[in-house]
Write a structure and sequence with these properties.
The complex is a heterodimer of chains A (91) and B (246). By secondary structure, chain A is α+β, with helices and mostly antiparallel strands. Chain A contains two helices and five strands, in the order βαββαββ. Chain A has one domain. In chain A, the strands form two sheets. A two-stranded antiparallel ribbon of chain A has the order 1-4. A two-stranded antiparallel sheet of chain A has the order 2-3. Chain A starts with a strand and ends with a strand. By secondary structure, chain B is mostly helical. Chain B has one domain. Chain B starts with a helix and ends in a 16-residue tail after the last helix. The relative contact order of chain B is 0.17. Classes of the chains: A alpha+beta (91), B mainly alpha (246). The interface between A and B is medium-sized, with 27 and 28 residues.
Chain lengths: 91, 246
């Protein structure tokens, strides 16, 4: 199955915030590719649109897009950061 | 509220990937930051307008020298290196990604210094970067100590730095956007555009660290103390000893 999110390498600054966020919640869908630049990619473990955490911490406008429509999701439009999409964090 | 700030809040500050005490804490601190952020935008707009009115190109060099002082080798690479040290071996399992974020930031700081030096080289104000080592304006900066001399030492708690990232890096982004809205000089815009993405990343680091890690009063306290320091209303200007005018 194709992942629902895709990284636009024209816009991505390779800051790795998406990797950090995705790893923290144990989805692990952001991977370091085998390219010599170690570009980040999103693989089939991504469960978007059920999870949108990476979009909230991506600093580069337009760098993560909906794979189907190509629509930019950074900064995140209101429909992807509704209360039910947030991951509860407790001590 | 300045429209530039409102846009920043709506697009980058309020969206949260998590819910819970970290996010709640961040939003409380955000309310404290907003008046200062708003004032910063007003000041940055005024400063950019004054620069344009000066009729001289010297403001471009002054901006680059100030940037070099705050982000060149004198300050930035060293201070970020020390912030990795604030994570002890016992804390590695919790803060492994925090260390990665800070290690990545060192690389950003390498480029920041190069960027400001390049502006000075291309503008013809210097012939070699080494000339800046003898230039006081490129080696001192009047910011308060969380972005100054004490930043050379590791914070006593690994999360304390998140307060500085959140507050100061937001200021950096807002200042850049305010200046870009006024100045259309290609050299200045090159400098600001290049810096913009990385300042946003550092702001996001602070946002993420607070949302994801600052979950207990013990974890929030060192961050709140940084906000207390940065926002202290009784010391709006640094002392002359620190390079300020007060």
């Amino acid at each position: 199955m194709m992942p629902g999110l895709k990284i636009d390498h024209e816009k991505c600054t390779e800051c790795r915030m998406c990797y950090v966020a995705c790893r923290e919640i144990n989805i692990n869908a952001v991977i370091v590719s085998s390219t010599s630049q170690h570009l980040l990619e999103i693989d089939e473990r991504c469960i978007y649109p059920k999870c949108t955490v990476c979009l909230m911490y991506c600093p580069a406008e337009g760098s993560i897009v909906d794979a189907d429509s190509g629509k930019s999701l950074v900064p995140p439009p209101p429909e992807v950061w509704t209360e039910n999409l947030r991951w509860p964090r407790s001590p | 509220m300045q429209p530039i700030l409102k846009n920043f809040l709506d697009n980058w500050v309020y969206p949260s990937g998590f819910s819970g005490p970290g996010v709640d804490f961040r939003l409380r601190q955000t309310e404290r930051c907003i008046p200062a952020w708003d004032a910063l935008v007003t000041l940055a707009l005024k400063s950019a307008e004054q620069d344009l009115k000066s009729g001289s190109n010297e403001y471009k060099a002054a901006r680059a020298r100030r940037g070099y002082a705050a982000e060149g080798p004198f300050m930035s690479m060293k201070q970020m290196s020390t912030q990795i040290l604030s994570v002890t071996i016992n804390e590695q399992s919790r803060y492994i990604d925090l260390q990665r974020m800070r290690a990545r930031q060192i690389w950003d700081e390498v480029k920041h210094g190069q960027l400001h030096a390049d502006v000075l080289l291309r503008g013809g104000w210097i012939k070699r970067e080494e000339e800046l080592m003898d230039d006081a304006l490129a080696n001192t900066q009047p910011k308060l100590s969380y972005f100054g001399m004490t930043a050379m030492f590791p914070h006593i708690h690994p999360l304390a730095r998140a307060g500085q990232h959140y507050y100061n890096e937001a200021m950096a982004c807002l200042g850049i956007w305010a200046t870009l809205s006024v100045i259309d000089d290609p050299l200045v815009r090159h400098q600001l555009r290049s810096q913009e993405a990385e300042e946003m990343m550092h702001f996001m680091e602070g946002k993420y660290q607070i949302d994801a890690y600052a979950l207990t009063p013990a974890e929030q306290k060192p961050i709140e103390e940084v906000f207390d320091f940065l926002l202290r209303p009784w010391a709006p200007e640094p002392s002359r000893a620190l390079g300020g005018t007060a």
